[in-house]
């Protein structure tokens, strides 16, 4: 792979990397990971750490076994988060590094003002050489408003701060594909997340983390769309982070589709939750993709979902392939009456539209 300067890097460490075979916090691996991250900071990189492990840590402290109910998980997260941070704080202190805790939720990311507040906070911390440590605020995030897994949280964080690279550290060497004989091999570089790649993601591979490879691919799509590189590397092998950013072949690299989107477009594309779908005809498709126009009702074939004005919708072609996302000008019940009509205003204004 061509060497690329990665200056702002988000590193995500999953529960499986922080847990020993007995299901307890693996302090040795945590310390080793911190040593690797400290090395990047010494190379003048701006690093944000997204960590799982609060529930594992809290469950251990409360003798809960594997927490089952939502309140149990929330209680475990509340106890575990501060214990986890204490360990990180101590481990980073050895390298004279200060850490900061940032707990994010889906609604904080979806709200433009809170999103910008969070970004300013990250900027200020990184300017001071602090290592922000991010987790989801599990105590308030119930299913409906949950990001749900830290692979997606890490990708949204990378998009929020405009990172050049997201590194997902996990318990395998990278992303495995299958060759024609059905034999698995480690993919060094993935240029496009096509059907073969989707199929190779298969089923979640670890029990402790939330996602396995499926959520890692979701994260890779966010990075590819917004213009960041992403890598999956093994969290148990020392020194890989430095190797990765100095251009050595480790793990699997996912390449971005295009250059980095500007900040507002990144938020539009992935900060909000998609509330509906507009299927468009080929005329509207080429106007959107080639001429950078607004989406007009005349080009819409079908509308799915119930949404209000200002909601985020996905714009797809007739085969269901997502082309763009954008904020609608009108609620679904109004828009539906205008399908296929000319001269009735805009469905999505070009300034509120992002091509994927
Ligand atoms: N936020 C959860 C925790 O700290 C982890 C979610 C995940 O593993 O993806 O335990």
Give a structural overview:
By secondary structure, this protein is α/β, with parallel strands linked by helices. 38% of the residues lie in helices and 22% in strands. It has helices at residues 27-42, 54-62, 70-93, 106-110, 112-127, 150-161, 195-201, 213-226, 240-245, 263-270, 282-291, 332-338, and strands spanning 8-13, 46-51, 99-104, 131-136, 165-170, 176-178, 184-186, 189-190, 229-234, 252-254, 274-280, 300-304, 312-316, 322-328, 348-355. It is globular and about 65 Å long. The two termini are 24 Å apart. It binds glutamic acid (GLU).
Describe, in short, the structure shown:
This protein is α/β, with parallel strands linked by helices and about 350 residues long. The protein has helices at about 25-40, 55-60, 70-95, 105-110, 110-125, 150-160, 195-200, 215-225, 240-245, 265-270, 280-290, 330-340; strands at about 10-15, 45-50, 100-105, 130-135, 165-170, 175-180, 185, 190, 230-235, 250-255, 275-280, 300-305, 310-315, 320-330, 350-355. Glutamic acid (GLU) binds near residues 14, 53, 136 and 211.
CATH architecture of the largest domain, by name, is 3-Layer(aba) Sandwich
- Specify the CATH homologous superfamily of the largest domain: Acetylglutamate kinase-like
Distance between the termini: 24 Å
Q: Tell me which ligands are bound.
A: glutamic acid
Order of helices and strands: EHEHHEHHEHEEEEHHEHEHEHEEEHE
Structural class: alpha/beta
In terms of DSSP E residues, the strand content is 15-25%
* Rg value: 21 Å
Share of helix, binned: 25-40%
* CATH class category of the largest domain: Alpha Beta
Cross-sheet strand order for the largest sheet = 3-4-2-1-5-9-10-8
CATH topology of the largest domain: Carbamate kinase
Major sheet characteristics: 8 strands, mixed
Number of domains: 2
Q: What is the residue-averaged pLDDT?
A: 92
> In terms of per-residue confidence, which ranges show pLDDT below 50 for 5 or more consecutive residues?
204-210
Report the principal-axis shape: globular
Counted by DSSP, the helix tally is 12
How many β-strand stretches?
A: 15
